[in-house]
Design goal:
single chain, about 375 residues, mainly beta, five-stranded antiparallel sheet, 25 strands
C-alpha cells in the first residue's frame, strides 16, 4: 500500500488489491424446452484504487468524505474507466464538513435539582432513578447523575457543564432511567429543551414533563410519567475564551463545591472491552477497586465485546499521585451446580499520576492474564 503525505487536510492511500480464487460456479437456465449452462472457473480480480479521505476533521470518524478512483485503465472495462479513472472520482459523503469543523461557542450549565412523581418500573419495591443528559449533534459521552435507590421523588442537586457548538440548532436531551443490578436499565421518561429558548447568561428554572418519546402522535405520551426540575444557564464564550483547537474544547467539568479544598473527584468511566472470553462462560462485568472501595458495572450476558458506558466517582482529600486503580473483568453464571460460577477474564492496574497531571486520559489497555482482551477506560481528575 502506498500512502501519500500532502499539505492539505487529507489522507491518500493506494492499496493494491489482488484476489485469485478457485471458484466453480454453474448456472443453468431452462426455457421453452431449451437448456443453457454457463460455468465460471478460475476467477481473478485485480484493482489499484486511490482512496482519499478528506477533509480531515476533529469529529469521529475523523474525515468528512471518501473519494475513490481507479488508477489503471487496462484492468477495467471502458465504461467503468470513463466514470472513475483518475482524476475522476466516486465521492461518498460521510459527514457535513461545516458541522464537523464547528468550534465551541459556549457552555451550558445544567443543575439537575429533583424529579417528582416518577412512574414505578419495578414490580417489587420502588425504582432506582438516575438522569443522563447530552446535547443533540454531540458525539461525546452523556453526563450522568448518581443513582437514588428506591425513590420515586429523588433529589440530586448535581451540576454539569456541557460544551455548546450551535445554540440555534442544538437541544438538551434529558433521559431518566431505572438502574438495574443485572440487565438493561429501564427507561422511565425523557424530554428535550432547545437551547434557542434560553436567554444567554440568565438562569432558567424549568419543570419538565417526562414523555415516552418525542412523537407527538404517540398515545402513550398522554400517560403521566412524572416531572423533572432543572436549572439551565447558557454562557456564551467571549472572543478570547473560544477554544482555538479541538483539544482545548475537551474540558473537564469542575468538582462539586463540597469537595475538599486540597482534593478532588476521581472519575472512572468504563466504556467497553473486546475479545474477552471465559473458559466456562462469558457474562462479563467490571470490578473497579480503589483504596479499598469497590464499584461494579452491570453484567452483560454472553458477549465477548461488551459495552457498559458506566461512570464511577471517588471523592478524595488529596490528589492520587502515588495510587493505582485496579480494574478487573470477571464473568459469573447463575446456573445451579456449575463448578466454576465465577472466573477472571483479565485485569489491569493503572497508575493515576498521569490523570492528575493531564486532568483526563482515555486509553485502551491490554488485559493481563487474557490472550487478546482489551478494555477502554477513561479517567478524569476534577477539582474546584
Amino acid at each position: 500500500m502506498k500512502v501519500y503525505v500532502t499539505d492539505e487536510k487529507e489522507l491518500i492511500m493506494e492499496p493494491l488489491i489482488k484476489w485469485a480464487g478457485n471458484p466453480n460456479v454453474t448456472v443453468a437456465v431452462q426455457a421453452f424446452g431449451l437448456k443453457a449452462t454457463v460455468q465460471v472457473v478460475d476467477l481473478q480480480v485485480f484493482a489499484l484504487p486511490r482512496i482519499t479521505l478528506k477533509p480531515l476533521v476533529p469529529s469521529f470518524p475523523c474525515f468528512a468524505n471518501i473519494f475513490v478512483s481507479l488508477m489503471e485503465k487496462e484492468i477495467i472495462k471502458d465504461q467503468v474507466a470513463n466514470m472513475y479513472l483518475w482524476p475522476k472520482t466516486l465521492q461518498v459523503p460521510i459527514l457535513d464538513p461545516a458541522k464537523a469543523f464547528k468550534r465551541p461557542v459556549g457552555i451550558l450549565h445544567v443543575k439537575v435539582v429533583r424529579a417528582m412523581k416518577l412512574r414505578k418500573k419495578d414490580l417489587l419495591g420502588a425504582s432506582d432513578p438516575y438522569v443522563k443528559l447530552k446535547l443533540t449533534e454531540d458525539k461525546l459521552l452523556s453526563k450522568k447523575t448518581t443513582v437514588k435507590h428506591k425513590n420515586l421523588n429523588p433529589e440530586w442537586n448535581e451540576e454539569f457543564d456541557i460544551i455548546v457548538k450551535d445554540p440555534q440548532t442544538q437541544a438538551l436531551e434529558l433521559h431518566v432511567f431505572d438502574w438495574e443490578q443485572v440487565g438493561k436499565h429501564d427507561k422511565m421518561g425523557m424530554n428535550v429543551v432547545p437551547l434557542k429558548e434560553l436567554t444567554p447568561e440568565e438562569p432558567k428554572v424549568m419543570t419538565i414533563e417526562l414523555l415516552k418519546n418525542m412523537d407527538l402522535n404517540d398515545a402513550q405520551n398522554e400517560k403521566s410519567r412524572g416531572q423533572i426540575l432543572v436549572e439551565l444557564t447558557y454562557k456564551p464564550f467571549k472572543e478570547d475564551e473560544i477554544p482555538k483547537t479541538f483539544e482545548e474544547s475537551k474540558t473537564v467539568q469542575k468538582a462539586p463545591e463540597t469537595t475538599p479544598d486540597a482534593g478532588g473527584v476521581l472519575v472512572v468511566i468504563v466504556h467497553e472491552a473486546q475479545d474477552v472470553e471465559g473458559k466456562h462462560h462469558t457474562n462479563p462485568y467490571v470490578r473497579v477497586l480503589f483504596r479499598g472501595e469497590e464499584k461494579k458495572t452491570k453484567h452483560v450476558k454472553k458477549n465477548r465485546d461488551p459495552r457498559w458506558e458506566e461512570e464511577f466517582t471517588f471523592m478524595l482529600d488529596e490528589p492520587p499521585i502515588n495510587d493505582k486503580l485496579h480494574v478487573e473483568v470477571l464473568s459469573s453464571s447463575s446456573r445451579i451446580g456449575l463448578l466454576h460460577p465465577k472466573e477472571t477474564l483479565g485485569y489491569i492496574d493503572i497508575n493515576l499520576s498521569d490523570v492528575v497531571n493531564n486532568r483526563r486520559i482515555n486509553e485502551r489497555y491490554h488485559l493481563i492474564d487474557s490472550k487478546n482482551g482489551r478494555i477502554q477506560i477513561e479517567l478524569q481528575w476534577r477539582t474546584k
